[in-house]
Design goal:
Length: about 650
């Protein structure tokens, strides 16, 4: 095939299949008929999904679409906090647990029922009003994973204030730029949180940011760690203000298209984009997908999403989706290795977690730590496993299924973005026969496609650009304050389609495989090769836990593949590991995908949400000085990797 015909190579073959467990399929919340119903009448399908919520006023128009601007459930009114909290109490479920909160210090836990949550959210809503925050005002939230965090989100939603959560690991500069961009008037924070066994301060970062943000009127501070804090005249203790408020608060109905939150995503380059989400469509799709994709049974399931609420996964699948569905969820404050590497599994055992939703980066870390750690815990309660954030390598999927899910729990690989608001492409656990590494099919009501560079659908067996062809309820409504950038970023590449920036392939059965960001695609001897397929081939070697590959300029092939590999805990490096892995990739994918170099490294550069940053590895591979490393979790990782480079040589 010549370069011009081939948009993205399809190299990886995977023949393993996992049928849905019969009992799960027989009792599944959503069956195959949802696909036929949705394709017969997509808007009627989303109307039925919206009817799962409680509306103060019904909408008159389901969708108004003036591309690329959508309005869903126009004319409808509802209160999100009422839907997530009060209606469950009114239905007689006040004693039901909303959150089992587990602090990082062992033994530090809280159980919060829906009735408790109603009181806490009402008090916090009254407190926000007392601080002068009203509908449409922006509130920046910079907090550890403590119960006051979801309470703050819900309190904002209740009064119609727009929250902008900034991940608690970001710097004062990042916090300041986000406060400025959204022009927030209040910050909610804490003295600190517990991380890796010690209190980690947050308040000094807020102090530094707020000193340069005159628009901030007040800072509401939760006492979590008890560490010393500097106090300014803008600061108010949460326990002084919120605890003395009334537990009564009448939720006002908001318009379906009133803004709910802004969440900044930096993407790969440039200034962070404030992704704007609104009310009715967002809650409709997060609630529907949470019910369908995880097959949630609210009366018996214990659900745990391990993401931080600072990311969209936490917004949609810790706070809004699960609470709208009346779920009982676990929230964990800390890291998976504190005080020991079995902490996650201890929590699964303690709460008898039935549904676990985590990220490939975590799964690969657990693979690296070794099978013996999860084997020490009773995790027989688990019945559905989810993955999100990056393509899941087939081997990581199979490991997850086998060592965490006892070879019985189906794995759902869920593709979506901050911008999409909710899951878009995923298997349904009671319907789909899963293929390890594939996100399979767009969910009912979602119209996705894989196209070539001319925007034409590729046939089965072909690769190209993922696009979404029709608007969906939880879609972003824009970039805060920048409609031009919204059009340019997402709607200009292909006329009339949303372009998420990801590559994908459609296999011979028509199922979808995500192939990573198109910016990362490597051009080797005229073939466009995805990083994902080569990484997955490397991870399928029994000695490899994690791999990242990049294309580095090469005089012969245009670009050549350079691989950075982390070995599994028990693997011996051995002198010929490079040759062994290169052969392994050539055998799995063909000689075209054989890496020029293999570097064995102790760690990989990751964003704070756990995604591999290949841009920095390209700098290393091409012997350039490093670009911006400030968004890395741990910038010392790059020194460790660079040290490996002089010893690396081509094995050809
Ligand atoms: C939810 C979330 C979005 C980007 C997205 C894609 C990657 C997420 C994935 C996946 C392959 C999956 N991504 N889920 N790639 N398979 N199941 O992660 O949002 O932080 O905005 O990132 O993450 O590249 O475009 P966000």
């Amino acid at each position: 095939m010549t370069e011009s015909q081939e948009t993205l190579s399809n190299l990886l073959q995977e023949n393993r299949r996992f049928e849905p467990p019969a009992a799960l399929a027989a009792a599944a919340n959503v069956t195959a008929s949802a696909y036929t119903e949705a394709s017969a009448d997509r808007l009627a399908f989303w109307e039925t999904a919206a009817d799962r919520l409680t509306w103060a006023e019904r909408w008159h128009t389901t969708l108004e679409w003036e591309a690329p601007f959508a309005k869903w459930f126009v004319g409808g009114k509802l209160n999100i906090a009422y839907n997530c909290v009060d209606r469950h109490v009114e239905a007689g479920n006040g004693d039901k647990v909303a959150f089992y909160w587990e602090g990082e210090p062992e033994g530090d836990s809280r159980v919060i029922t829906y009735a408790d949550l109603q009181k806490e959210v009402s008090k916090a809503a009254n407190a926000l009003t007392a601080l002068g925050v009203g509908k449409g005002d922006r509130v920046a939230i910079y907090m550890p994973m403590i119960p006051e965090l979801p309470v703050s989100l819900l309190a904002c939603a209740r009064i119609g204030a727009i929250h902008s959560v900034v991940f608690g690991g970001f710097s004062a500069t990042a916090l300041k730029s986000r406060i400025d961009d959204a022009d927030a008037k209040l910050v909610i924070t804490a003295d600190g949180g517990f991380r890796r066994g010690a209190p980690s301060a947050l308040k000094p970062t807020v102090d530094e940011a707020v000193a340069q943000c005159p628009q901030i009127e007040k800072v509401l501070v939760v006492r979590r760690t008890g560490q010393d804090v500097t106090w300014t005249d803008k600061d108010v203790w949460w326990h002084d203000l919120v605890d003395s408020q009334s537990e009564q608060h009448t939720p006002e109905a908001h318009d379906a298209e009133d803004p709910l939150f802004i969440l900044y995503t930096s993407g790969t380059t440039g200034k962070p984009k404030g992704i704007l989400h609104t009310t009715g469509g967002y809650l409709t799709q997060t609630a529907w997908t949470h019910n369908a994709v995880f097959d949630l049974k609210p009366d018996t399931d214990i659900y745990w999403c391990t993401a931080d609420i600072g990311w969209v996964t936490g917004h949609s699948y810790i706070v809004y989706g699960p609470l709208a569905n009346g779920a009982s969820s676990v929230i964990y404050e800390g890291t998976p290795d504190t005080p020991h590497r079995g902490r996650f599994w201890e929590i699964v055992q303690k709460y008898q977690v039935t549904i676990l939703y985590t990220a490939p980066t975590a799964i690969r870390t657990f693979m690296k730590w070794g099978d013996d750690i999860p084997a020490k815990f009773d995790m027989s309660s688990l019945r559905v496993l989810g993955s999100v954030g990056e393509p899941i390598n087939p081997e990581a999927y199979v490991w997850y299924r086998e060592h965490i899910g006892a070879s019985k729990a189906p794995v759902v690989d869920t593709w979506w973005q901050t911008e999409t608001g909710a899951i878009m492409i995923s298997p349904l656990p009671g319907v789909t026969a899963g293929k390890p590494g594939a996100a399979m099919q767009p969910l009912p009501g979602i119209v996705a496609d894989v196209v070539d560079d001319q925007g034409k659908s590729v046939p089965n067996g072909g690769g190209g650009f993922l696009v979404i062809r029709e608007p969906w309820p939880a879609m972003l409504r824009g970039i805060w304050g920048d409609p031009e950038r919204y059009k340019e970023t997402y709607w200009s590449r292909f006329d009339g389609f949303y372009f998420p920036g990801d590559g994908a392939k459609r296999d011979d059965d028509g199922d979808l495989w995500l192939l990573g960001r198109v910016d990362d695609v490597m051009l080797v001897s005229g073939h466009n090769i995805s990083t994902t397929e080569v990484e997955s081939a490397l991870v399928s070697h029994p000695k490899v836990a994690e791999a990242a590959v990049v294309g580095a300029t090469d005089p012969v092939t245009g670009q050549a593949i350079v691989s950075f590999v982390i070995l599994r805990g028990n693997a011996e490096e051995g002198a010929d590991i490079g040759a062994e892995l290169r052969q392994h990739v050539a055998k799995a994918l063909g000689p075209i995908a054989k890496p020029r170099q293999i570097l064995i490294v102790p760690e990989l550069p990751k964003t704070r949400s756990g995604k591999i940053m290949r841009r920095l590895l390209r700098d290393v591979a091409e012997n350039r000085s490093l670009g911006d490393v400030t968004t890395l979790t741990d910038s010392s990782v790059m020194n460790l990797i660079s040290e490996k480079l002089p010893s690396a040589k081509s094995e050809d």
